[in-house]
Amino acid sequence: MSYLPPNLRNDDANPEWMNKGDNAWQLISGTLVGLQSVPGLVILYGSIVKKKWAVNSAFMALYAFAAVLVCWVGWGYQLSFGDKFIPFLGKPDTALDQKFLLKQAFLGRFPNATMVYFQFVFAAITLILIAGAVLGRMNFYAWMFFVPMWMTFSYTVSAYSIWCPDGWLSKLGVIDYSGGFVIHLSSGVAGFTAAYWVGPRATKDRERFPPNNILLMLAGAGLLWMGWTGFNGGDPYAASIDASLAVLNTHICAATSLLTWLLLDILFFEKPSVIGATQGMITGLVCITPAAGVVQGWAAIIMGLMSGCIPWFTMMVLHKKIRLLKQVDDTLAVFHTHAVAGSLGGILAGVFANPRLGRIFYMVDYWPRYIGLFYGFHTGRTAAGFRQLSVQLVGIAFVIVWNVVVTSLICLLIRLVIPLRLSEEELNEGDDAVHGEIAYALWGDGQRS
């Protein structure tokens, strides 16, 4: 017996434009990305820091996830993907109206409600990645102000410019398949900038900052790796062959990068570092993100080799030689793992982007765009290949400049109201002083730090 009211038809719940498979895959992908943050990065942050910062670090991630969602449905989504207001920003509006949520999304065969959810988890993880640069000393109250301000004035601009069809970089033809620019380059640059303004950790923390639980760190890292299936697999907005290719390329690049970083650690430091392998995994995932569904498998392997080498070199060699890098206390090396790896991936997308795959993903047949330099040489369209590479560099430059300026302004404004950095007493005590709570009731070694 049917319990549907007589005025409600099946077409109301499943309109002709909606594809149930695509809608289901999009919701699953969004949830996989959400799991990267909660519990993935919550666990990773809570375990990769000293014991006395476990609660604070995990809570910074959890708070950001919740705060971004409220801001996202309140105004963030429409600023990022709504009707055009200016070339790099949509009109401010809420994403809560039922008529809007049940209509077809701007791309894909599913409703706006699905798109709002899917895009939210990307915005949330970006803020959580920024937190990685300021763990162990940023005032939690300052963080509470920073999250909604940065999401509003920085993330929305990058998202609209690159991902919204009306965005100026989107029209220019920038390839950012799933957030190499919007998420990773943005978070890496913003995190490094915020770390500069917040200041360094306490001297003893900066000199020695061992993880309190490496096994839990690996569990968080594993959730991050597997969650990337939805991170890159969901961006075709369809359960398509391009989604399948993106997922496979993602894991190929991550594995290659992890092994490359591991071998470099063994070669130069004579120790197979678990933390180093985790860093290599992350740089591989970040590097493939802007190109996941527009490159072939052999290119994903090359990108994995390079993402295992170049961020390793900037972190292990250049970081000790360049004054600015030594001066800024970037707790989890977010600059290297996200800004450097994200830029590298964006550049390599401009080199290895397969024009056929680009046409499948972007649903266009426009040769001057979406053709990597390698294929430009191979097909005799050298000018188109150089054009794509130059467009990628323009996108990188814009994201860097915008995030340095906006993040600095936000930190300076917050500093007028509340200290960015914890007091010396709180820095010495950690979680107990900041939250009145500690992660471990029993200290196995008798030490509180």
UniProtKB/TrEMBL annotation:
Its main location: membrane. Keywords: Ammonia transport, Membrane, Transmembrane, Transmembrane helix, Transport. It is found in: Cell membrane. GO terms for cellular component: plasma membrane. It comes from the Eukaryota. The chain crosses the membrane at residues 24-46, 53-75, 116-135, 142-163, 175-199, 211-231, 243-267, 274-292, 298-319, 331-353, 393-418. InterPro entries: Ammonium/urea_transptr (IPR029020), Ammonium_transpt (IPR001905), Ammonium_transpt_CS (IPR018047), NH4_transpt_AmtB-like_dom (IPR024041), RhesusRHD (IPR002229). It is a multi-pass membrane protein. Residues 24-440 form the Ammonium transporter AmtB-like domain. GO terms for biological process: ammonium transmembrane transport. PANTHER family: AMMONIUM TRANSPORTER, AMMONIUM TRANSPORTER MEP2. Belongs to the ammonia transporter channel (TC 1.A.11.2) family. This is Ammonium transporter. The lineage of its organism: Eukaryota, Viridiplantae, Streptophyta, Embryophyta, Tracheophyta.
